[in-house]
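Entry 14. Ran structure prediction on the chain below.
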Amino acid sequence: MQKSQWQQLEQLLGDGVTARTITVDQWEHDGGNRRPEPGDRMKLDTGIRFVTRTVGSELHVLETDKELTALEQELIRLLLQQRNGKTSGGATELERQARRLGEWIGQNAASGDWRMEVPDGMELRSRLFDGMIPFLLLREQAEEKEPSYGELDKAIRSFMSEDTLLIPLRDHEWLILSPDRLLAEAEAAEEDVLEGHERKAMLSSLGSGLLQMVSGEWGGECHVAVGDPIDPVESAVQTVGVLRETIQLGRKFHVGMQVHLPWLIHLERLLSGIPEASRIRFVEETMGRPDMFNDLETVSTLDAFFAMDCNVSETAKKLFIHRNTLLYRLDKIKQETGLDVRSFNDAVLVRILLLLYKVTKRK
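Output, structure tokens:
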């Protein structure tokens, strides 16, 4: 290291500095990020630890008990990166910060600490604010061309807003946080505050647009979950957990759908918690004809009927059939099962049966 750089480090770190060599496993065990690079740091009970050099599975680190400001920590990081002949390891500073936040979110989500708040030491915390729309994007077909962070970030910013943040989580999975400005603009355009159902329809539309943009650009099978605006400092971890569950339940109960909404899976979430043996027994005991849902026409008719809130005219339009044809199909279901889906109680029962049958059949 050049003398001037070393002098700067001495000035910043002071006298209480310890040089050590540890393993990458020890770094991660103590709470450090994955794939540590020179300049990375972690908070210890006794101070701060900085990575000065990486050698295979070993890390050369400096530990100091001095209280350092955020600016001083950033200067030390830059000096250590310059010493190793790199500034960002091939990634932009924004990507490095986003990956660090994504790893923190992932660790807390996996351990069940859903109520953890983003710590002050996280660089991106200053760019998180109340009123950000959360999207969870999952690409399944890894054999398709995988976008780089920079490519995906540029495309999403162009589609949504320059203030949008792209945060990598697991492989092929990203959290996207976008300002709720689009919803505010829609309210201004309509000169009224959006009603709850209108806001949810807009969120669904944004999710569909994101899905089409990513699928059209890179191909492959994608899934998107979108939630109500949040304050990510307080609820980023919980939101990721909820949106992951939303995609999981949506894929299980609503095959063919790729945009998944938390407010549309309340019943599915409840049913998924019922033991499998109880689900199977309920289906077998309640269904008049065990093979009724094997008929694709019956299933598609019921799916459309429930999607249209049991409205006969709207369901017929959705299925592109005559109203009398739909009535004939509903009468046939009543004759074979003894359940009339035009009756509220029977409709609830058939809805539950259909969902249970779908998940039970796929076991």
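The chain has a mean pLDDT of 83. Will compare against last week's run tomorrow.
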